[in-house]
Amino acid sequence: MERSFVDKDSIVRKIWGKADTVLFIFAGAAAEFALNKAVDWLYFTGRLPADPLGRLFSTVTYSRQIIFSGEKTALNSIDQIAAIHKGVEKNRGAQIPDWAYRDVLFLLIDYSIRSFELLERKLDIAEKKEVFQVFYRVGNRMNLAGLPGNYDEYCIMRAEHLEQNLISSKFTIDLYQQYKKHLGMLRYAILKQVQVILVPAEVKALLPIGSTKWISPAVVLYKMLKWAGLEKPFKNTLLPNAYKEQIKGMDNDSVL
After folding, report:
1. Measuring CA to CA, which residue among 71, 52, 72 is closest to residue 5?
2. Inside any domain, residue 206
3. Does residue 140 form part of some domain?
4. What is the pTM of this model?
């Protein structure tokens, strides 16, 4: 039997095997994609502004394919991601900056931890290091330059990236308009509220999301419903119809 890329009892599988946690990761990614100084690369292909939910969900889908697959399948998925980006670089006649690749890897690590801690429990340092190690292996396979060697170095570099690589631009405004268009008023309001309680201060300060935290009591209520096994009807009403079945399928940690 093929060896799993991520151990079956890994905390990373627990994090990415819960649909609500993955949706919070999605919310964090939506925030930072809009602020990244290299977001013009995503506009170059036209995919992000045309279908922002699909573009972000593709990032989530690839991550889950890697986390829940066997070693060989996961490595093939990582190689496919690298090949797609190389193709974009070739078409544009320029290279995506190394820091932009690292930013995406770093935000997946950060929001994996933040989302699980908001919805489930605090992670200990060993578990946080395990999250880092899994995504480090992904970055290393992609031959990304300048990766941190351990979790402590990652924390330092993540802080530096938050200070240096984010900007509120015309792309930020346009992307949030697209989020509103594709999500509808209610889901868009919830997205912004999740971001208020989830993202780092450096990110929140640059976003058009306000600072009121009316969602905090709702999250407490949701966790109570979840504990009682009554959260599914509530959750299903909030899911975008186009992705409802896909998201429901995330509520397990089986091999894809």
Report:
1. 71
2. yes
3. yes
4. 0.89
